[in-house]
Specification:
Keywords: Methyltransferase, Transferase. By secondary structure, this protein is of the alpha/beta class. The protein has a domain of 179 residues: Vaccinia Virus protein VP39 (Rossmann fold), CATH 3.40.50. It contains 10 helices and 7 strands. It is globular, with a radius of gyration of 18 Å. The N terminus is likely disordered.
Length: 257
């Protein structure tokens, strides 16, 4: 996300306005991720780890469950206000290009549904600085399964508003790899179902998207109305107290040389 004054306007405004919707509507991460990190990367209680661009702490909670010593770095004050309620979590204000931690002080840096905001050579150089040799950079993205027609319809409601906002789906984040000082990216995928009421899984999820949250009230109301209509009229959604939105959690990792 760069320094605080270079945050993309959609992030600076949208996330500040819709932190509550973000906390309600964003999916968590598959339970299988944590054992995988332990078995494949060696994540353990002795590790010092950073959740970079931690948001409201969706992934910080998982890291705390590992017993590791977890620091969360988040530049948006409204998001940090959600993080401070997590026991044992150290919360810092900062950005990917100016991490307020010493050289070689971390065993792993995690960016969960965040790396697309700060996928720059400068950010990677800073991540390399704070990682010990052999330390891990781990990127996670929750990707909606748009082969399901109502999920595709949900995405289509959002797409006209995205403009130049950095997004995972655009793929620009990949351009910084292979990265100097790091091994090649490895990838592993995990299936995940986000279960809940349609208002949470669909409406809150979309309203928490940065560029939707940053819209003027009348435009955001149009998006809300379109989502409500989708829920009311689609055969798989109408009248359902609970739905399951299918995701694929993509995990990418590389090691500091």
């Amino acid at each position: 996300m760069g320094t605080t004054n270079t945050l993309h306007p959609a992030a600076a405004s949208g996330f500040a306005q819709q932190a509550d919707a973000y906390a309600r509507g964003r999916p968590d991460y598959p339970q299988a991720v944590l054992p995988w990190l332990g078995e494949q990367l060696g994540l353990q209680p002795a590790w010092q780890v950073l959740d970079l661009g931690a948001g409201t702490g969706k992934f910080s909670r998982y890291l705390l469950d590992s017993g590791a010593q977890v620091t969360a770095l988040e530049p948006v004050a409204a998001m940090r206000a959600k993080l401070v309620s997590l026991p044992g979590l150290r919360v810092l204000d900062g950005t990917a290009e100016a991490i307020p931690l010493p050289d070689a002080s971390l065993d792993a840096v995690f960016a969960a549904t965040a790396f697309h905001w700060f996928a720059t050579p400068a950010a990677l150089a800073e991540i390399e600085r704070v990682l010990r040799p052999g330390g891990w950079l781990v990127l996670l993205f929750n990707v909606r399964d748009e082969s399901v027609d109502w999920v595709a319809a949900m995405s289509a409601i959002m797409q006209p508003y995205e403009g130049d906002t950095p997004r995972y789906r655009k793929g620009d984040w990949r351009k910084v790899f292979p990265a100097p000082g790091f091994s090649a990216l490895q990838q592993v995928d995990f299936p995940y179902l986000h279960r809940g009421a349609p208002e949470q899984v669909i409406v809150d999820r979309v309203l928490s998207v940065s560029f939707i949250a940053a819209l003027p009230d009348p435009e955001r109301a149009k998006v809300h109305a379109a989502l409500t209509e989708l829920i009311a009229t689609h055969p798989a959604l109408a009248g359902q107290a609970e739905i399951a939105l299918p995701y694929r959690t993509e995990l990418y990792c590389c090691q500091r040389r």
